[in-house]
Amino acid sequence: MKRGLAALIVLLAPLLLAASDPVGDVSPCPGVAGSGGDAPDLVEAAGEITELGTSVRFSLRFAEPLVVPDRDGKPFRVDIVLVDPDVPRVDAGLYRGVNRLLRYDAVADPVTTILLLPEGGQSRFIAPTIEGDTLVLQVPGRTLTADEDETGTSPGLERLRWGVIVRDEAACDLLGTGRATARLVAEASPAPSPPQSTDPARGGGVATAIAVAAGLGVLGLVVASVVRRRARTSR
User: I want to staple 81 with a disulfide (CB 3.0 to 4.6 A). Which of 98, 108, 181, 201 is the partner?
Assistant: First the structure.
């Protein structure tokens, strides 16, 4: 019972650790002039450290399937806002107290743009994967924090904080307040395999039962042969 419960917790961990967002809360972007736009309605988001500490993955779920590319007015934009505590923070429009952005624009040939705000650095990576109402964005950890040992891993990833801002023109949906406050979690390990059954009627017990039966059969033949010989000699 305990093993089964542990396995269930492992399987559900990403869901339990996801941050939920109210349905139908798209509203005017705070501090942004103008009107218009129809931002996708974010309802859930999760951030994980994956591939043995070498990568970061964000999974976002929306109230409805995403229509991409977005050809109605300006394409909508999804920003994962991040704070690295070892880097100065900046304020810029919607973005308050952050220093990294992972940006996706719903254009015809999309990419993931990685913005290092205080340093003025920018790089590009493969576009997110979009299936129905789910967007999954993944980048190497070394694009966000230093790989000081040149091992491919970035020990500072667990210290990052993140948030989400979805925007279409002047309409926004923020995960919570839009601030980078959520923690990244370690990717769930595969559920442990159940112990091999010792029931003679199942698994390895079947082979044992067959071996025992074969042995008894051979023993029976030997006994029968001895009995016949004694019967002949006594005549």
Answer: 98
Helix H or strand E segment including 112? strand 112-116
Scan for tokens 């993140």, then name that residue.
162
CATH hierarchy code of domain 11-186: 2.60.40
* Ramachandran assignment for 132, one of left (phi > 0), alpha (psi -120 to 50 degrees), beta (any other): left
Model pLDDT for residues 193-217, shown as the tens digit of each residue: 555 554 544 444 545 445 545 555 5
Structure tokens that stand for 131 in this block: 């299936």
Which pLDDT value is given to residue 228? 54
User: Is the bond preceding residue 69 a cis peptide, omega within 30 degrees?
Assistant: yes
Residue 214 CA, chain-centre distance (Å), reads: 51
Nearest-angstrom CA–CA distance, 104 and 80: 9
